[in-house]
Write a structure and sequence with these properties.
Two copies of one chain form a homodimer.
Chain A lengths: L2 H18 L6 H6 L5 H7 L3 H20 L6 H13 L9 H11 L4 H27 L8 H22 L4 H15 L10
Helix pairs in contact in A: 1-4, 1-6, 4-7, 5-7, 7-8, 8-9
Chain lengths: 196, 196
């Protein structure tokens, strides 16, 4: 399958998933969101599970490339992670967080989903741990355990996601708490700027 | 409806929900788990939404009464909260966390569920904030913002729940991180004991 078809199918999967939810997601509904026929989708992906696995894989890749700015200051990179993770402009305006929540609830029954969520978790924790390590080394941050800070930020982001869905709460509420915790751990206030 | 019937129906709801999940939960399946007929369940609860609303309400009440030990030392009370929230003996062994996750994913479409999750959140944050306030006042904890510490513990508990379901991770992993964060915020190490 060429990259363009794959990308069109996965974007249509995103739209269909947001609109109909996991339980009501069908290949026909994905086809309805794209110019690809349901027969062609079936040809490329044997099962709904495989298709959603590719969808999650694609999400992780995009998240990873969004956050890979190795060259810049660790403080800027940490700010970028917090921006990416905690700043949904309009929570609840689209069904995306709900759809991801439903897929998480399916993880105990679908090993492929669980593996993708473990991948995503590994990527996110790895990115944060690298930043903390670099920042400590460069003298920007106080001595801190990179893995532990990564776990804090990642688990708070998992919590913010659940709160957006279950409570309709904006992730900015969680970001504030994470920023204060980072200040205690790293001796550095996020968003305080690199030039201070 | 007498308290005994109500309690039997709600316990059966718990079992049926854990076994079949939200989407496949039917009044007949709840009846199958109890000595109450499905007609009697329908008589007491007009809709599945109402029944699950009562189920969540009951959960909150039990959680609240479990944590209401106003008399004792704030440090003991904080330990009790961490015990209640982060120590699942066998994550994934029953379907309860998955069922709650599914109900959270339904919250955007069911105002009653959202209201119950908001209640639960309010109770949990209130309990933690009260403990922090009491502990600071008694000189056991460093000066700290009770609401912020409560938000930290509660959001980490939301994250631990999502991680248990999506990743199969034991909440003890999150507890460790919360304990270290509490040490930084309160100058007190959880589980360090009251007599130190």
């Amino acid at each position: 399958m060429d990259a363009e078809t794959r990308s069109e199918i996965l974007e249509a999967t995103n739209r269909a998933l947001c609109e109909h939810g996991y339980a009501d997601l069908t290949v026909q509904r994905i086809a309805d969101e794209s110019s690809v026929t349901s027969a062609a989708i079936h040809y490329h992906f044997d099962t709904k599970e495989e298709l959603l696995n590719a969808f999650l894989d694609d999400l992780i890749e995009r998240f990873e490339s969004k956050l890979s700015c190795e060259a810049s200051d660790p403080r800027t990179r940490l700010d970028a992670v917090l921006d990416a993770v905690f700043s949904r402009k309009d929570p609840g305006a689209d069904g995306f967080p709900v759809a991801i929540m439903e897929l998480k609830a399916q993880a105990p029954y679908h090993e492929l989903f669980r593996d993708r969520f473990l991948d995503f978790d590994g990527v996110m924790r790895g990115v944060v741990a690298d930043i903390v390590r670099d920042g400590v080394e460069a003298g920007h941050f106080d001595e801190a355990d990179p893995e532990e800070v990564a776990r804090l930020v990642t688990t708070m982001s998992n919590g913010a996601h659940a709160r957006a869905v279950a409570l309709g709460e904006h992730p900015a509420e969680t970001r504030r708490v994470v920023e204060d915790a980072l200040e205690l751990h790293l001796g550095w206030t996020p968003a305080s700027g690199v030039d201070e």
